[in-house]
Amino acid sequence: MKTSRAWFVYVLVRLLAFIVPFAIIMLVLPGWQWNWLVGVIVGAIVSLSISQIFLYRERMALAAQMQERAEARAAKNEQPRPMDIEEDADIDAQIDDADGSGTEAADAAPEDVADDAAAQAEPDAEPEDKK
Asked: Which residue windows does the record flag with biased composition (Acidic residues) (predicted)?
């Protein structure tokens, strides 16, 4: 089944399955204040039931079309842009030029790191060694 035909059939049947019960409720209960609410609820239940029972092929065709579009969009977005490639090359070059200069914090003792963090958190406080 063509997807354009599936869209048309699905939407048309769902609308008719909602409008017909809604109109019947509105005509049967014209003087009641809440007739529109009952009509909406009954129409939604009937429309959902008909969709689940009779429109399986149309729903599957629509789902397959949506999945194909999403996969095509994802494949398009996965291809790196030239700017991304240049940025990656620049970052790799910076890392290669650094020659391990970023490992000073990893070589420090844990106590030194804790003292530095405490000093940064409280800039006015004196270190414990000086007290």
From this structure: 85-99
Number of domains in the chain: 1
pTM over 0.70: no
52, with CB counted inside 10 A (0-12, 13-18, 19+), is exposed
Residue 71 to residues 65, 81, 82: CA-CA distances in angstroms?
Answer: 10, 18, 22
pLDDT, tens digit, for every residue of 4-54? Answer: 888 899 999 999 999 999 999 999 988 888 889 999 999 999 999 999 999
* Domain presence at residue 66: yes
The answer to the question of residue 122 being in a domain is no
Within a domain: residue 89? no
